[in-house]
Amino acid sequence: MKIKIIAISKDKFDYISDGVIDYVSRLRKYADVDILNLKEELIKSQGIDDVIEKEGEKILAKLNKDYFNVALHRMGKEKTSFEFAKLLEDVRDFKGGKICFIIGGPLGLSQKVLGEVNLTLSLSRLTFTHQMTRLILLEQIYRGFEILAGTQYDK
Q: Does the predicted TM-score (pTM) go above 0.85?
């Protein structure tokens, strides 16, 4: 299986970078994971709407229609870990085995990006930093594969 994560900005803290490296390493037995960090737009010289649109254009330029594209968004559908595992299984078995998760910048995702994805997903009703979201997402992907494998990780 191939997993791509497109994210605006990069990890700013070593503890997050270390966690991302750890989960990408753990996931190697289940999937190829590629993380693409795109540069965050600066708000100083432009309006908020302009920033969201420019970041959206960067994301859209990297989207691939061969992937099942999932935008992470606060208004997205929430899933349990078992439902999330089922999503991974369905993509693996029935949708070409390629999934891409999109994490917007601090201001969110453009409507254009949201209109191009197959699913809009929320990791929680809580708000996380965009750097932390990357780590939480990777942990949930790993958890999903461990659930599918029937290991004790989820216990």
A: yes
